[in-house]
Structure formats: C-alpha cells, structure tokens
Prior knowledge:
- By secondary structure, the chain is of the alpha/beta class.
- Helices cover 45% and strands 15% of the residues.
- It is globular, with a radius of gyration of 33 Å.
Amino acid sequence: xxxxxxxxxxxxxxxxxxxxxxxxxxxxxxxxxxxxxxxxxxxxxxxxxxxxxxxxxxxxxxxxxxxxxxxxxxxxxxxxxxxxxxxxxxxxxxxxxxxxxxxxxxxxxxxxxxxxxxxxxxxxxxxxxxxxxxxxxxxxxxxxxxxxxxxxxxxxxxxxxxxxxxxxxxxxxxxxxxxxxxxxxxxxxxxxxxxxxxxxxxxxxxxxxxxxxxxxxxxxxxxxxxxxxxxxxxxxxxxxxxxxxxxxxxxxxxxxxxxxxxxxxxxxxxxxxxxxxxxxxxxxxxxxxxxxxxxxxxxxxxxxxxxxxxxxxxxxxxxxxxxxxxxxxxxxxxxxxxxxxxxxxxxxxxxxxxxxxxxxxxxxxxxxxxxxxxxxxxxxxxxxxxxxxxxxxxxxxxxxxxxxxxxxxxxxxxxxxxxxxxxxxxxxxxxxxxxxxxxxxxxxxxxxxxxxxxxxxxxxxxxxxxxxxxxxxxxxxxxxxxxxxxxxxxxxxxxxxxxxxxxxxxxxxxxxxxxxxxxxxxxxxxxxxxxxxxxxxxxxxxxxxxxxxxxxxxxxxxxxxxxxxxxxxxxxxxxxxxxxxxxxxxxxxxxxxxxxxxxxxxxxxxxxxxxxxxxxxxxxxxxxxxxxxxxxxxxxxxxxxxxxxxxxxxxxxxxxxxxxxxxxxxxxxxxxxxxxxxxxxxxxxxxxxxxxxxxxxxxx
Length: 700
C-alpha cells in the first residue's frame, strides 16, 4: 500500500469533513440502534430485527434512509429477511445464530447463511423477484452490525477502487474470499488513521450519545475508503467552493427582465422602497443567480403521491462587479445562461432577493450551492426523508396541495371595504386593529360567544392580503392537552419506534421564512385554553416583535430557528368560558387585546337589519339588546357574557323566516341562558317567555 497517497486522501477528507459528516454519520446511528436492540433470543424475533436494523434513522441533521443493505429488482435485502422471519422465525433465528458463532470459520458461516437464504427465497419468492439480496455485501453488513469493532462492510466497488488507488492487491469479483483480503486492506488503512490525531478528534467530536462510539475506528476507516472511491481529482480541480450566493428574481410589475439584465450586465431591484438594505449589502465578488419559482405536480423525477412540489428554476449565474449603493442596481458579469434552466425542487425562494449561505450545521444550503455551481445532482431521497418535507408529503389533509393550487385559479379580491361590509365594526376600530397588528405582530380578539371572532380574524387577513387566499393562513385550536410536541417539534410513535416530527407552527414558520415577499398569518382559536408556556416553549420569546428573525437553538434537534418577521399571530379568546383561569401573564405581555362586542347597535348592523325588512328579526334584535344590558349589569356575569350578533348574521330575505329565527332563539340562544342562570330558574323562565312572546304573536 502506498501510504503517502493514503495520507493525501486523508487530508482531502478532513478538508471536506463537514459535508461528508452530514451525509455519512447515519452509519454510526444505525450501529448504535443494532447494538441497543439486538437480542437473538427475543420472543418476537420479527419486531426485534425490525428495530435492530431500522429502515430510517434520525440523525442530528436529518431523517436518513438506511442504504447499507442492497436492493435488487426493487426488493431490499432487509425486507426479504423480515418476510422470511414472518413465515419461519426459528429458521432465520438459527441462520443468525450460526453466522454469529465466532468459533467457526468465517467463510463457512458466510456460505451457510447465503445457502439458507437462497432456500427460503425459492420457497417464498414472489413474481418479479429474481435475487434473494443476501449477497456478500449484505452478509458483511450483518456481521459488521453485530461486531463493528472486528468486521467491515464489503462493497466490491469501494474495495476495488481503494485497492487500485492505494496500489494494493487486486480483487476478483464474485469471490467470497475477498472479505478477508478487504479486511487486510482496511486494517492497513486504519493503522495510518491511528497516527492522525486531528482526524481521530474530528470523528470523536461529531458523535453524540445516540451514536456508536467507534473506539476501534472501523467505521471511520470505512468512511475514508468510501471517500477514496468517490474522490475525483479532475472534478476537484473544476469545482468552485461557493459559500454565499444571491438568488434573485427578474420579474417587475409582471414583466420579465431576464434578457435585459443578462444582455446589459446588471440586475435591478424592482421596488422603490423595499429590499434597499439587502441590495446595498451585496459585495463585489458575490455570486448571483436569476431564478423563478412555481409549483409542479406532473412529470416529477420522484414520487410524492400526486402532490404539488415547490420548484425553483435557475436561469443564469454571474458575479457582482460593482454596487452603486443606491439599493436598486448592481452591475453583474453574467455567465452564458444555461441552455435549459436547472430545476431545483423542495427548497424554494419566492422573494425578489434571497441570500443563501453555506452552513456547517445544515446540509440543505450547501446542496443548493453545489447544485448551482458544480452540477452536483440534487439528492431527492434525502430531501424526501428530511422531517419538514416528509411531513408535507405524508399529510392526509392535503394542506400543501391547497397551499400551492394552480396560479391560474381565480382568486377573489377582498378589500377593507369588503371587510367593513361583512364584519360589523366601525372603520376606526378596523384601522386600530391593523396598525397594532403590524406593529405588535401578535393580537388577540377577545369577546363573548357569537361576536364573530373567527369570522373576523379570517376576513381581517383577507383584507390585508387584498384577496381571499388561504395559502397564507394556518389555523389551529388550542386545548388543555395541546403541547409543544404538537405545535413545534416532538417525537411521535411509528412502526419503527419513535421519530422526530415537526409541528404545524414550525412548518409554517419555515414556509414564511422562505417567502419574505409575502405576509403570513397564523390563527389560534381558543388560545387561552392552552398552556402557553408549555406549547410555545423557547419560542415564547421569539414571537415578540423585537425578537423576530433572531435565532435560538431548538432543544429537540439542536438547530437554529427563528420566527420570521413576516409572520403574524392572531388569537381568539372566549371571555365567557368560566372553566378558564386568569389569562397567562406571558400571553398578556406578548399580545395586544381587542375586545369584540355585540354589534346590534352599530350602524353597519342596523343597515343590514334594515335591508332584511323582517319584523320577527327586529323584535328578536330588540330583545337581545335588552338581554345584553341585563347581562352587563349582572355582577356575576358582566359584558364578557353578552350574546353576540353572529347568531343572526349571513341571512337574507329569502331564508330569514319566522321558523328559522325561532330555531335560533330556542336552540342556540336559550341554552346559553340556561347555562348562565343555572341557579336561577325563575330568570330562565322569564326570558323563555320573552322569546315565546315574539314568535307566538302574529307578525308580518
């Protein structure tokens, strides 16, 4: 072996360690899972092996598929083993017992295991299966998982490349004896690794308590071997290490300026009063890419169950050569545009100007930069295994599909005037509501039942968006059992144990973070029913206006996270709920409260009432005004318990009949009064007579 060549590769490995580590650390997790769960005498041998050799593992970077065992004709060696265990658990148990019997010759054990596997394969094989998958590589994986301090994974392509590049003995494909030759090669590589203290410390420092400690350095040795196989000296010379790039749009007021920018050597911000500081921060020498963003459902290079996927199309790349510091324009030396735009999936930037920087603790941004500048293919499987996208494409409610509906769908315009026509509040109140929400970022609409808090919240958002577009809205209802794990992040049970899953608020923040050009609104119904500190956790500080876009490290995944400045929170609170304690001070301090009152006496409601031209309606409204005055004066109740106007909303002349109004009075309003006056039956009887007096008498 040429040890000087090996040392060269080791130095290159260390230079690229951060990227390699994120890609390959899953192996240390998989060995740890096997060591923790393996029990040859387990009563339920199937469940034990299913846990011991997991299909995926959650590393500190991402959820990663177990790619160690071979897949042939679409069938994995792992799944075939599990199938055989389901049919003949004791046969497979004995196969592993004999494979792991260290008192017997290694090659004899390997051959015996492979022969037994072939017998089971022939007995239970299905249509299209033509290989049992239990080849030398698979068997070496089983041996390595059980004795990671002694064995190595045998993969012919990797071993052959190492042998050739390091000038070792040649391997002959198809010979089981290779497993011993490879062990000799790897042990010699390991002897050189042991002399490199820097490398050993790098490897040790990346491991946490969920990783196999690898004291004997066998895993590190295999990692080096895999790196040697993939290392391409020519590609290395061609690669450009780009750590920062500006991804920008070329559409201004509906006009595509791509050709203009590239032809004349510049890029321009189409806004007069937006993104000025970002443009000024662009530096000479920075890379810049023109992109467009949209969604795609058909003809995808991967399967996401016929759901929409975010796409970012890259059109041309260049280098900034001058910044005029006017916040509007930079001069660019554009490369020749790609003949066919490059499609990047999942991570999408819709904003006009977006800075992407490589991060040591997050592989995604580096993957985008390498895809852009070095033509390194996007690893679709890795993205689909990442918790954020894994959750999106496993949703049963198709939220993502609704969120990304075809841009050609007609969207209804909705303005402040529409809001004031539908929601019975005065214009000054609306203006205050909007101003405080913009400044504070968080508001709560508080009021008695039936004042239309939920209806108002959604229409308020529509009026701020200028259209009825639910893709910028998420809504959730709090309750006493709602927790951080539901809202932000937590471990959920799965068939393979527990997996780390992100919650609705975390996911929505990520969407808003990647689309700074638009505003997003998170609506929380019954906000005071939940334990705010328990639900928000460390995010409770981040939702404050002054702390938006400031990052903290999340306790579950150890990654940086921020609540974006373009996300607003609107809560609703029922003030008549006697079961709730005093509102959490943490809630009071971080939200501005708006009291929503019944609108029976507001001018806008009176106009609505007038247009109905219905005497039953008029009498019912007058009675409710009288009732609310009495409730307000009642020392045990107060105005928080008044009856809201929403019980009588959304009516027109055709449906506003005596029978309908009677149903509303008898089956919606009177039950509330029975609850209010549960200890005063005379008062309930009085108000029941008052309602009956309206409908028992003839009226127009």
